[in-house]
Every structure is written in C-alpha cells, then in structure tokens.
C-alpha cells in the first residue's frame, strides 16, 4: 500500500452498499474526518471513490491495507447486512485490530447477538460497539439518529465522531451513549417497534378517513399536511401525505391504489414483541402493528373469508367533525404506543443491567430517525420532570392530552367497529388504556378459573396470604404456603 495512506484516516467504514456509502460520505463531509473505506468487492469501492472525489476517501482493496490506513485507536464502522455477514467482517477485523481499537456494528443487529459478540471480543481488549442507526438512506447521508452501546471508554473516542454526523435537534446532536454491550441495538429495536405502531396507526387513520369519511387520497393528503402543522407533527405524517398525493404514471390512479396491500417486514418489529413478551411487558400497540402486517400478507385466508362473508356492515354516517375525531384518536393511540415502547426500554434496562436515560433517548429521537417528531420533546420533559413515573400516561401533559381526546377516541373506535373497518391499533390502544384505568379487571375471574382447574391459588382483596378453594371437595377455602402467581 502507498506509505502515504498509513494511519491517515480517523474512521473507517466497511460495507459500501447504500447505507454504508452514505454514512461514509456523511463522515467525510465533516470537518476533521478522514474516512477509510473498504468493501469485499472492490468494484463498489471504486464506484464510490470515483463518484465522490470530493470526499477524499482512503480506499483499500485489501483488508490489511484498510486496517493499516486507520489511525490508532483504530475505529471502524461495519455497515453490512445483519447476520452471518457481520460475523465474517468482525472476525477479519478482530484478527488485525489491537487492544483499544473499536469495532462498531452499525447494522440492525439483534441485540442478543450484540451482547454475545461483545462478550466474545472484549477479552481481546478490542471494544465492540453495537450502534443502532436510524433514518434510512437519507438519514445516513445527511444526519441519522444514532444509538451506540458498548463501553464508556469506547464512547470517548467514538462519541465525537458520531456527534459530527448525527442529526441536530434543537441544537443537540441526536446521539448519546445508551448503555453497555447490546443497549444500543436494544433501543434501536424498540425504536423500530414504535415505528411499526406509528405507521399502523397512521394507516388506520387513512382507512377511516377514506372508507368512513369518504375522502379521496389526495384530500386525505391535505388533511395529513394540516395535521403536520399541529400536535401530530412528525416525519411519518409528512411522508404519508406525500405518498397519498402520489399519482401512478402508468394508470393515472392514486399510487396507494396500485400497490398490493400486503405489508412486508424485515424482523425488528417481531423482535420487539418477542422480547417484550419475555420481559412481561404489554406492547399491544406494537404487537397489533406486527400482526396487521402478517394478516395483510395472508391472501389465501383473506380470500377464504371474503368468499363466505355475505354482506359487510353499512358504513356509519359521520359529519365534518370526523377528521378531527380521528386526529384525536390517532394522538391518544400514539401516546399509548410510545408509553408501551418506553415500558419495554425500562424493563430491558433492568433485566440486562443498563443504566438507561429515558429523556436522553426521547431527545435523540427528535431528529434524524424515522419516528422523529416534536412529540418526543413532551416525552423527554415527562421523564425529565419525574424519571420514575410508572407510565407515560401518568405524566400530566399526556394524562391531559388523552383525557381531552378520549371521547373522540371512543367514537372513532365504535364507528370503525360498526362500519367494519379494522382498527387493531386504535382498538388495542383504547383497551389498554381502559384496562389501566379500570378499578376492577376480570383478571379476578381468570384467577378463579385457574384455581378451579389447576389449583393455581389466588390472593384476596381483604386479607394477606395465598388461598385455594377446594373446588372438587366441599368448596371451602384453605390458606396455602406457596405464593400465588
Ligand atoms: C430506520 C428504519 C430502518 C428500516 C426498518 C424497516 O430506523 O431507519 O427502521 O431500520 O427501514 O428496518 O423495517 P421493515 O422492513 O421491517 O419495515
């Protein structure tokens, strides 16, 4: 390799598909960064360096040269498809890096893999950092929201580099050290779960405005653009308006009408729900969003039911205030989905021993990422005021907002049910809220059933202890020594 490139770059990027290339270009555009680039297929590296001479990339064809081109402590961000490919690249770098060097996995890795990788690599003295990066291709280029895990020590080197490329929200870079080992990828996973829920809720709002409200996509786009000026302001609302305004060039129809209605997924929403189940955290809003995609992608079952359904309910008549009702229902449901996501973060932090700062997470989600919105300021304020609130729904701002929209929320869910419009997101959010708000739940009856068939025991409302009724005997009650669960 040319002697002139040895130790020249302060940061390297491995994997130059769109996300990697854009992140490398973003890094190169910031004062003080010299960026080394490496890709398994050199042609891709040449394309990038050829198209972007201004970036001054230090390109290497061989991994040894790439490693040599990095200043110490060497810092390399891996941007390859999550999975086996990531391990192969990590192994190549671990072989060549030295204690104190830093390997960053910037893909959408499963945080369990990140924890295992960190455990495997840390004895070598090399820092392994799993960093969630959100914002899609454009975010990678112009400023993503970054959620790095890994050691405190690695963040001393990495923090300023990541801060140089992150989005800026209200003067602050959208990056913070989330916690050790897999914390960054865990929080990115929850971000994606919330992203699924938010998208599903917006999609339900669209369906209601169209099916019940009788509006065409272009008119709904206008409604969403209006909403984007108020409390619902968010990147997802903004892009939804653009998608709805799009007209298909081939047919002249609204774009949304020519797209097959089967939603795909790459897995992070499923991970969120799986992990929330393991943590015992109800994330119904996120789960319903994952299930809604799954239902949409079952054409055989959909066709089978459609073939036996004789008639569909009559669409309810609504007046001009319907759109306003839907906006309130959307907001209240959104508050629930975010509250559930933060509950999962709190439980994950406790289980995995991460010292997570909730208001900082809300702050780094204000810019760059897919769920970016003003709304995140309210969440940051709520946790800033009282980090120990039991749920975001308890925070005065959200309690008031939900109370204010509650009647509209109920009208919308009822109208949807009567009209046969599926609203799994709105409906489950409302049921979750009602469950928390109810003084008594039928869980008491479930306990009775469990005790009846399995002697699972129960607690009483009026006396301490654990009890069992002798259901197959004289039905008298006995106090047991075990614990009721
Ligand atoms: C982001 C996105 C990004 C990706 C999702 C899409 O934060 O930039 O979340 O990570 O677009 O993985 O997920 P699905 O393909 O599962 O919808």
From TrEMBL:
It catalyses: 6-phospho-D-gluconate + NADP(+) = D-ribulose 5-phosphate + CO2 + NADPH. Substrate binds at residues 108, 134-136, 191-192, 196, 266, 293, 450, 456. It holds the Pfam family 6PGD. NADP(+) binds at residues 15-20, 39-41, 80-82, 108. Keywords: Gluconate utilization, NADP, Oxidoreductase, Pentose shunt. The active site is at 188 (proton acceptor), 195 (proton donor). Residues 184-472 form the 6-phosphogluconate dehydrogenase C-terminal domain. One of its GO terms (molecular function) is phosphogluconate dehydrogenase (decarboxylating) activity. Its EC number is 1.1.1.44. GO terms for biological process: D-gluconate metabolic process; pentose-phosphate shunt. Belongs to the 6-phosphogluconate dehydrogenase family. Homodimer. Catalyzes the oxidative decarboxylation of 6-phosphogluconate to ribulose 5-phosphate and CO(2), with concomitant reduction of NADP to NADPH. This is 6-phosphogluconate dehydrogenase, decarboxylating. It comes from Leifsonia tongyongensis.
